[in-house]
Amino acid sequence: MDIRDFRLERYMAQHEFSAPFLLCSSDCETLSIQDLLTFEDQSYENFLNLKLGYTEAPGSPELREEISAWYNAIDSNDVIVTSGAEETIFIAMHVLLRSGDHVIVQMPAYQSLHEIPKSIGCHVSPWHMVEKNGAWHLDLEILHDLITPNTKVLVINSPHNPTGYQFSASDWAEIEKICSDHSIFIISDEVYRGIEHNPDTALNPMADMSESALSIGVMSKSLGLAGLRIGWVASQNEEFRKKFQAFKDYTTICNSGPSEYLARLALKYKDQIIKNNLSIIHENMDILHTFFKSYADQVTWSAPIAGSTAFPRLVSDTPVETFCDKVRKDTGVLLLPGTVFHVETPHFRLGYGRKNMPDILGRFEQYLQSRI
């Protein structure tokens, strides 16, 4: 398998656990095991009595039932549990694609969403997002133009990392129709589902809308439980699920029993967890609006409308990697340069899903003040 280094993950591996102040985190506020166990009577005793044998390959029936409850047209048999969203992406790409196929990917994107198809031998066309008039945009006419007779898969992500963009309901429906008309399978990365800043903008999962689609979910982002390493794929397409499960026999086979138990518990009380995380997000967004207004001569942004990440732009001729490196060395604050997303413009990712964001933003603010 010939695949390039994962820029984002290599960058985070180098700095995430050495930089003392993370301002680029993509996830929401996390919880402890004790926090989760307090949700339900007897859960502490049940967790301690859990046997550490093999688990069911597609995931425990109880966990798949909780996951399917987050959908309308999906039942528990339509869900396969994975070791995080990364495994879902890896397997789905290998199941759906062959060398020579054409793939369209919404960009910027998490690198595996375009790098894995390239490693398979696919031709990948970027569907670039454009920033204008204080917002991010995607042009459906450009999507039409990118489609070829050999287009097999469209990869989309909403809510979007890193921009905080969210498709409109009308564009979302039109994408499903376009792909249906051209027999294109949709891989829909929905890992930030549930933390739309305005609940009225929440979209139907793509897996609910089409049998030629899959939705990717994970415990890491909206729920802040990355340490569980639990993700899933949801799809009505039985043939795809059979191939996915067979391929998984060559990766993780099955998942961690303790993680599955805690994930089921968290999903049962997901509304409460997400409500708490949205409260943090809204408070932090208020602070960020004031911050970017105050420092518009140094950094600008198109305010996100969903998720827990933003993609501000540096107003300077300084290369963004140099800027982020100097911020880290001078203040201990870690920002994520847009170059890890293969973006040539001077953008960087900023995360605002954690309680400590205001304090860390204050350190970044002191750095910007020192440049005045």
Your description of this structure?
The protein is an alpha/beta fold. The protein folds into two domains: 7-32 and 271-370, Aspartate Aminotransferase, domain 1 (Alpha-Beta Complex), CATH 3.90.1150; 52-269, Aspartate Aminotransferase, domain 2. It contains 14 helices and 16 strands. The protein has helices spanning 7-15, 33-37, 43-48, 61-68, 85-96, 112-120, 140-146, 169-181, 206-209, 238-248, 257-268, 270-294, 320-331, 357-370, and strands at residues 21-22, 79-82, 102-107, 123-128, 130-132, 135-137, 151-157, 185-189, 213-218, 231-234, 299-300, 309-310, 313-314, 333-334, 336-337, 348-351. It has a seven-stranded mixed beta sheet with strand order 2-10-9-8-7-3-4, sandwiched between helices. The protein has a three-stranded antiparallel beta sheet with strand order 12-16-15. It has a two-stranded parallel sheet with strand order 1-14. Helix 4 packs parallel to helix 11, helix 5 packs parallel to helix 6 and helix 5 crosses helix 10 (238-248). The protein is globular, with a radius of gyration of 20 Å. The protein starts with 6 loop residues before the first helix and ends with a helix. The model has no long low-confidence stretch (mean pLDDT 97). It comes from Methanospirillum lacunae.
